[in-house]
Design brief:
Distance between the termini: 29 Å
Oligomer: single chain
Number of strands: 0
Shape: globular
Structural class: mainly alpha
Largest sheet: none
CATH topology: 434 Repressor (Amino-terminal Domain)
Length: about 80
């Protein structure tokens, strides 16, 4: 299991990003496992992204957006 980023875990921007990703995923009816598989990201790491524990890179954000069928911009929209 990936450990949370020691200096960034819980950052408001990461928590907000994770909440937005989770909301989109749930609204579309996808499981964490299905999005993690579609994006090539480990499921436990993906869960950490949704919890705001990982300072996720742009390439992985793009993979998540593609798997969720949204734009990168959509991932940064507040509720």
């Amino acid at each position: 299991m990936a450990k949370p980023s020691p200096s960034h875990a819980g950052s408001p921007v990461l928590v907000s990003l994770g909440q937005t990703i989770r909301q989109i995923r749930l609204k579309k009816g996808y499981s964490q496992e299905s999005i993690a598989l579609a994006s090539g990201i480990d499921r436990s790491y993906f869960g950490g992204i949704e919890r705001g524990e990982h300072n996720v890179g742009v390439v992985n954000l793009e993979k998540i957006a593609i798997a969720l069928e949204v734009t990168l911009k959509d991932l940064f929209k507040n509720k």
